[in-house]
Amino acid sequence: MENELGALGRYAGPATLIMSSLAGGPKHGYALINDIEAFAGQRLRPGTLYGALARLEQGGLIEGLEADGRRRPYRLTESGAGALQAQLASQRHVADVGLRRLSDGLATS
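Predicted structure:
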């Protein structure tokens, strides 16, 4: 489970953003773009978004719901929630190490 997002390689960043957005509840593409921009300060382009959605859905990490008109919402699966939790824990560890080393480095300067 913890390697599922890591296996996405260079696509893990957009996948993490999308799944973090979906952790708050189902959303369609436009709502995902706006939510991600609001919480992460990044605006995913439609090609990046829909390519990542297809990979995540194919991997069973998200699932599409019944379309509401032209909009198709997606939601996080149980497997996706576990993979996201592992990915975020890994990112937290890297951030903690980096911040600690930065702090230690500044203290000795």
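Summary: The longest strand covers residues 62-64.
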